[in-house]
Amino acid sequence: MRDDLQELVDDVSRVLGAPATLEDRDFTLLAFCAHADDRTTTMDAVRTRSILGRSSTPEVRAWFEGHGIAGAAGPVRVPADPAAGILTRLCLPVRADGELHGYLWLLDEGRTDLTAPAAPGLAAAVAVAEAAGRLLAGGRPGTADLSRALRGVLTGSSPSAGSRLGAALGPDAPVTLVALLVPPPGLPAGWSPPAAGAVPAVLADGAEVAVLLPLPAGGDARPAGALAAATLAGLPPGSTAGVAAARRGCGDLPAQWHEARTAARVAAVDPRLAPAASWPELGAWRQVAALPGPDPALAALLADPVLTATAEVWLDCAGSPQRAAARLCVHRQTLYYRLGRIEALTGLDLAEGADRLLLHLGVRAARLTSSFAGATTSDTDSDLSSTGS
């Protein structure tokens, strides 16, 4: 297939009279051609780095994706950025059956007029991009196939499907898993993650979504909120996202799903982490999430929302009456009265550290459990269905 791709790149370079480069949708170099009339003015730092390093930096990728190439159905003119040493380019999205597989780039110095359907060589160049799309589609599973493989891994119905995902994304490629919790009315019809290369799987009639995201070769230093922002776009208000710790390869996806789903649940109840949280930043919430629920000894307390909120605020304030009363907007004597009621209802001694720990874990576990009571599935026996991107 590589020889066929090289031949197509040679063809498009000849048709438009410009140096050409073919990259996959993750900006990994597949083939390139220096036109016979190539001059130093038609080379820039991005093309040079792509050829020498076989890939592009996250900053370069963000620049080009910012011009809409990932969602484009036809040719796109990407303007020059003299300050960054980037020359103007013609981008031909490489698609097959609507699915993005890569990009054909031509340093044509702006000669090709995209507003003129009869521009010399444009129709032939588009045909070359379509041929490249068919080749790449035949050489790698489509998104729907990968979504079914992700479903098999997460449900345990096909644990070996992880090898298919690994083969498609790279056996040692860094990946993370994002969990999306979507409140009613659920996932919008036709939704797909905007990130190039993402593999989605829909859960519980659109209430939960797993999105497998390949990361740049050097890892991804962006915070969880930035990483998940694109996947939350277009979802109903109140949707939250959780990001698992990154791994290399797809051999630990069930553990990543647990991490991501837990982080999304916590983001739904802790405003400090909403709307997106990552597993590493959850802190004590990781222990809370591992509990089946609050201790039964707290049942009478948890039936009283005012006393429950008082207990949690007071514990979050490290037992400081002054800080807790200020946050609750009550007189300190009112706080003392409520704390006495909490001890009476639970039988706990709030002067004891172990009893405080039980109470703190319990009220947090209650908050996390009640916020997720409407879910109809569990981490392990969910009925996943796939969706394309």
Relevant terms:
alpha+beta, 12 strands, 16% strand, 389 residues, Beta-Lactamase, 7-stranded mixed sheet, Arc Repressor Mutant, subunit A, 5-stranded antiparallel sheet
Could you walk me through the main structural features you see in this protein, from its secondary elements to its overall organization?
The protein has 389 residues and is α+β, with helices and mostly antiparallel strands. The chain folds into 3 domains: 2-139, Beta-Lactamase; 143-288 and 380-386, no CATH class; 292-371, Arc Repressor Mutant, subunit A (Orthogonal Bundle), CATH 1.10.10.2840. Helices cover 41% and strands 16% of the residues. It is built from 14 helices and 12 strands. It has helices spanning 2-16, 45-53, 58-65, 122-139, 143-155, 162-169, 224-232, 253-269, 285-289, 299-302, 305-316, 321-328, 332-346, 353-371, and strands at residues 20-24, 29-33, 76-78, 89-96, 99-106, 174-181, 199-203, 208-214, 240-243, 247-248, 276-278, 384-386. The strands form 2 sheets. Strands 6, 7, 8, 9, 10, 11 and 12 form a 7-stranded mixed β-sheet that branches. A 5-stranded antiparallel β-sheet has the order 2-1-5-4-3, sandwiched between helices. A hairpin with a 4-residue loop joins strand 1 and strand 2 (29-33). Residues 372-389 have low confidence and may be disordered.
